[in-house]
Amino acid sequence: MHDSSTILFDSGRLPLWLRIPALAVGVGFLWLAAAMAAYGLFGVSLGVPFGDARGSPLLGSLGCLVIGAILIFVWFAHLRILFDSARQELIVWGRGYLRAHKRRVSLAGCRQFHIRHVRTGLSGRTWRVSAEFTDGRSERLVDILSGVESLAESLGAATKLPVTKHNDVS
C-alpha cells in the first residue's frame, strides 16, 4: 500500500485450527460432488455406493459443490479497510479465491458515514458501512460481521467526519 495509508479495519485471517479442517471438509465435499456427478452421468462409482440413493444426482452434486466452495473460501477470506490520507480515499481490500480485490472510494464531498445493522438472507445479520455525500448520493462501502465499534472510532478519527451507528434491523 502507500506510506500514507492507515489501517482502519483488518478482519485478519481465521486461525489455522479452523482453516485446516474447513479446507479438508471442503475438499471432501468437492470429491463427493464429483462422485455424485460421475455416478449420475456415467454410472461410474468413485468409491461411494449410490445404488440405493434417491433424488437427483445433479442437484446433490451441485449442493455439495456449493458447500465445498464455501468451506474452501474460509482458507482465503480476508478483509481490510484503509484510509489514504494523501488522496483522501478509503481503500476496501478483500482477498478472494484467485486474487485480492482493491476498491478505492474518494471521500471528496463526503458528509458522514453510516453503520447500519441490516438483515441478510432469511436470518443473517450484518453491519453495512456506507458513505453519504453532500450531493445526496449514498455509497455502500462494505458489509462486516463484527468489529464495528473499533471501525467507527478509527473511521471518525482518521477522516474527521461524523460516524452514525444505527442499531435498528431493517
Layout of helices and strands:
Blueprint: E1 5-10, H1 16-42, H2 57-76, E2 78-84, E3 89-95, E4 100-106, E5 110-120, E6 124-133, E7 138-144, H3 148-159, E8 163-166
Parallel strand pairs: 5-8
Antiparallel strand pairs: 1-2, 2-3, 3-4, 5-6, 6-7
Structural overview:
The protein is of the alpha+beta class and 170 residues long. The chain folds into two domains: 5-11 and 77-166, PH-domain like; 16-76, no CATH class. Helix content is 35%, strand content 35%. It is built from three helices and eight strands; from the N terminus they run E-H-H-E-E-E-E-E-E-H-E. The strands form two sheets. A four-stranded antiparallel β-sheet has the order 1-2-3-4, covered by helices on one side. A hairpin with a 3-residue loop joins strand 5 and strand 6. Helix 1 (16-42) packs antiparallel against helix 2. The protein is elongated. The two termini are 36 Å apart. The model has no long low-confidence stretch (mean pLDDT 89).
What attributes does this structure have?
four-stranded antiparallel sheet, alpha+beta, 2 domains, 3 helices, PH-domain like, 170 residues, elongated, 35% strand, single chain, four-stranded mixed sheet, 8 strands
